[in-house]
Amino acid sequence: MTVVYSLVAITLSAIWIWWKGRGPTSKECLPHYRGWPVFGNLFQVRRERSELTFSEWTKDLGPVFSVKLLHNRFVVLSSFEAIYEALVTKGNSFSGRPTKNAFRAEVISEHFSSILHLQANQTWKKLRMICHKKIKMYDTGMKRIEAISMNIIQFLVEEFKGTNQTSFNPKDVIYNTVMNTMMTLLLGKTFTKDEELFEKVMEFEQGAIRASSPSGRGVELDVFPWLRFFGNKTYKTLKRLVELKKQVWEIMTEEASRGDLLLKEGEEDVRLVSALRDALAEEGSGLTEKHLRSVITNDIVIGGTATTSSSLYLFLNIISRHRAVQMKLQEEVDRIVGSDRTVCLTDKADMPYTQATQLELLRYSSVAPLTLPHTSLEDIVIQGKTVPAGSNVLVNLYHMHHDEDFWENPFEFQPERFLGDDGGVVPASHPNRRHLMPFGAGPRVCLGEALAKSRLFLVIASLMQKFDILPGAVSAPCDPRLLEHGLVLSSAPFQIIANERLLN
């Protein structure tokens, strides 16, 4: 009976919404496909991979069009020109985040308290500044990132060696490696996968990805929040995520207090948790524990772990099938680094093929295909089309990275796209580099871009230095059109064989 009541309530509410807003307004002039009454284009969009549907629609509707999903109307941007104009040239006008019909984001972020979900206000700027300062992306900070990463990558290498050249699924060890980089940044220490903090952080990250897809399961809660009273599965997940956030914060606070006792007199405290605690204690800071909990879970855990671990996992699937690419990577690392020392970030400038492979991985995988929705703060013209103020804007990075009108053979993995005639990496001004925005662009560019790129380079180069990666007993497609979707794209489970290289 509960299901029947729920369906009746949805139908009545939908009819009311349709009746209330049945007439088009003067601002609804963007190209769009006619949808169903009430439901709009909901049944025309591939819910698990909506970016693929939007890429097809771009061929008919152009690079700026609208789509209606239930009561939510989105503006979709697909071409490089439209995306660059919106995010960079007119970035301040698109720096807002949705708060209307965004129930899931509101719950997960504790009333939009994370950097990802906050409006571009003073609190947002303060939190970004704190994280930037502690991550220390430049100068000596890169050495710290390198030290953190290499200690953990050594664990990754030993885990691969421990498989004794048998077929195995590398997903867990890749995830643990990336997650422990973030744990070290936050708390100055690593954790094993069976420790309580690690288990809860992993549960939060994986649950949030499943529950947050902009057009997947659970989107009905954004329009009809009252469905939470009728046994909605996504809402049960959301409730668990809120509970997990509080538990993670409590455990991290305890860990930070224990860490305080271990600091030597005069020693610099480089832990991000400490910086956030200090900011909270400042008079007039405007920060609350909600902000800190959300920054740690939404921004650091999800933002710093999900995309990088998914990219590296997919890299192993790709590289096991592309022996020629693997041999070129190995030749370069052998020539520049050799076998007697570990890879360093200073090697990067002398390893153009590895850099090009990293760039091609970011393009090919596009693990964050739509990014989080932006909101237009005023009426603004993009590529000759007026985007009304208050519009929720989806940026289809996936289409830009696989646009057949720009990229030759976009669904083939070709690092050479990012190499010049002289064998060096093409400069940032090169069209291929300009058409690559895996971390977004403009005022809301990803906070951890430099950290993510550094980790990708170190892991790729280190694995190629030590191993031949071969296909294992279980296979899965690595074609980006066939990846699994949540908030980020990911490969289905597969196995590899890691044969240790024997070098003189």
Automatic annotation (TrEMBL):
Its cofactor is heme. The keyword Membrane applies. It comes from Capitella teleta (Polychaete worm). SUPFAM superfamilies: Cytochrome P450. It is found in: Endoplasmic reticulum membrane; Microsome membrane. Belongs to the cytochrome P450 family. GO terms for molecular function: heme binding; iron ion binding; steroid 17-alpha-monooxygenase activity. This is Cytochrome P450.
